Amino acid sequence: MDLFVAIFTGTVIAATPLIFAALGELVVEKSGVLNLGIEGMMLVGAAFAFWAVVAGLPMPLAILAGALAGAAASLLFGVLALTFLTNQYAAGLALAIFGSGVSAFLGRNFGSEPIDGLKPLAIPLLSDIPVLGPLLFRYDPLVYLAILSFVAIAWFLSRTKGGLILRTIGESPEIAHAIGYPVVKIRYWAVLFGGLMAGLGGAYLSVAYTPLWVENMTAGKGWIALALVVFATWRAYRVLLGAWLFGGMTILQLQGQALGLAVPSELLSALPYLATIVVLVIISQNRQMLAEHFPASLAKPFRPTV
Amino acid sequence: MRYRIERRPEPSALMRVAAPAIATLLTIIVGSVFFAVLGYDPLATLNAFFVEPVSSLNGLSELLLKASPLILIACGLAVGFRANVWNIGAEGQLIIGAIAACGVGLFYPDPESFLLLPLMLIAGAVAGMAWAAIPAFLRARMNTNEILVTLMLTYIATLLLSWLVHGPWRDPAGFNYPQTALLPGAAMFEPFDYSYRLNSSIFITVIAVVAMWLFADRSFLGYKLSVSGAAPLAARYAGFRESSAVWTGLLAGGAAAGLAGMAELSGPLGQLSPQISPGYGFAAIIVAFVGRLNAFGIVLGGLLLSLLFLGGEAVQMSLGLPSALTRIFQGILLFFLLAADFFIFYRLRRLAEHA
């Protein structure tokens, strides 16, 4: 039972940074923009949040600093992709490289001391329920925020006028422009939101998940988040499921290492990457499902002619 | 005074050539501002970053030594990029090439055989191609995005390398360091001069540059690839198969990266350790773009990015600045280049003042 609780809660926690980053990217891609730079934005967010904690800022402000740093980084991509109509693959890669450099540069003086990380929050009364209490009501606040943002984004995309406009822009920016929507401006907001969420995901890694500075601590989570959006075939609820699947993979791998399984630890560490490939291959077989919610203008530059 | 951005009637040939130079200049300007903000004398730091590292014969040897893998890989990648095939996992293909070459070097029965080096060369190229064949197969047959697969395979290659040097291939006489035994002399490229590290593997790069030029600008297959990239519908109409572009693009990149990994191993490294590349596979992507995907440009781009690596190492030693600066400058350079590219197709036009 204890093992089950450990695996369940561990999964939810490990999925949290992926949920933030992948939901952010979902909104970006729904607007027809492909930002490959998630890994860079997460690293920048992680570094700034950690730095803010070391500098003595209260935890909520430190997390906000991480999120805003992610947003600022995304603006670099936004200017290139939306104003300068750059190839979005290249601009995203540039951001990924730049972000990892900035993060490593900032982290040079962080040392190897752990910080006082974000604490779990036992919800009064509910957390005392047997079984359900430890399973559902003893997480840190960002775990709940991730779930809340899932609900908000799923609702926004499918049930609001704003979501409809965003999806229209992603389908056909020409038509959205002809109707009179400010396509480029809305895409900027989507990109900024994606950066904010990636920064939040990075901040979660450095101040809550492992409150200790390690260079390149995302270890590919930004790229996995990108894969999750494809895996989810651009639907919010499947992003959540995918993130939990990968969170579970991470935890099984850690449990496997703790149990001292007779396999090399590198093989266990490679599981999330292998799983990403397998999952992508499986989902790519169903072309109809991929096409159904795919934003038709994804990664195509758009510039209003009038 | 108001300006308007408008599309040029014809893409500007001048801007196409000038953009990399403008981007380099802007990167240097931003770099000096950055140094000034950090409290270093910008001119002295720029000198330490960009000039001092190459102001000696050893520095020039190091410049070419580092430019060689960058140019080699970028030539291979450019073949794919021309066809819109996005191999961003050259770093992993480099690692696998080095692993395969090292396997041959360590376990070939006759360590003094003159066949050793050629066999390692083949092993490196074939292994890099095999690693790139995975995403090629998955993209061509299984409709799977190659960007993510090539990148995931890079993480897996890094872990495979780590397992080998910590486990089965660890040098028993190596004081428990995670590294393989040193390769025998017959497995190494001859340096031109034993005072410097530059070695004859640079000829592989020279051959690759010429091959890239012949292939891309003079061959029908190269032409087909470019059409596939620039106008996929036209390519399909003309009967060019998309899958052949995918295979050619990825295998070219894989072979080049595998060769680069082999050349690093049989050149400056001499043995495997957990970290064998400072990110050549990723930087080569920038080299390919800075070089406009053509052979001559890639040579210049490779020298520039090599200088960024050297400068990063130099200021780390002389000023204690972290070598992460290299990646920051790489990113900024690519940002500026992409922005400057905009002006190939667009221009600023001054608007007449309205009365």
TrEMBL record, chain A:
Q: Which CDD domains match?
A: TM_PBP1_transp_TpRbsC_like
Where does the record say this protein resides? Cell membrane
Q: Which residues form the signal peptide?
A: none
Q: Can you tell me where the transmembrane regions are?
A: 31-54, 61-82, 88-106, 142-158, 188-210, 222-246, 258-283
* Entry keyword Transmembrane: yes
The record's annotation in InterPro entries points to: ABC_transp_permease (IPR001851)
Instruction: Give the way it sits in the membrane.
Output: Multi-pass membrane protein
One GO term of the cellular component aspect? plasma membrane
Name a GO molecular-function annotation. transmembrane transporter activity
Q: Which UniProt keywords apply?
A: Cell membrane, Membrane, Transmembrane, Transmembrane helix
What is the name attached to this protein's record? Answer: ABC transporter permease
Per the UniProt record, the source organism is Pseudaminobacter soli
Automatic annotation (TrEMBL), chain B:
- Sorted alphabetically, which Pfam families does this protein's record hold? BPD_transp_2
Question: Per its record, what are the GO molecular function terms?
Answer: transmembrane transporter activity
Q: Which Gene Ontology CC terms are recorded?
A: plasma membrane
Could you tell me the keywords of this UniProt record?
Cell membrane, Membrane, Transmembrane, Transmembrane helix
Q: Which InterPro entries match?
A: ABC_transp_permease (IPR001851)
Q: What is its main location?
A: membrane
**Membrane-crossing residues?**
21-43, 63-81, 88-108, 114-134, 146-165, 198-216, 280-308, 328-348
- Where found, per UniProt? Cell membrane
Q: Does the keyword Chloroplast apply?
A: no
Asked if the Swiss-Prot or TrEMBL record annotates the protein with the keyword Transmembrane, the reply is: yes
Q: Where on the tree of life does the source sit, at the highest rank?
A: Bacteria
Q: How does it sit in the membrane?
A: Multi-pass membrane protein
UniProt-recorded name of the protein:
ABC transporter permease
Organism name: Pseudaminobacter soli
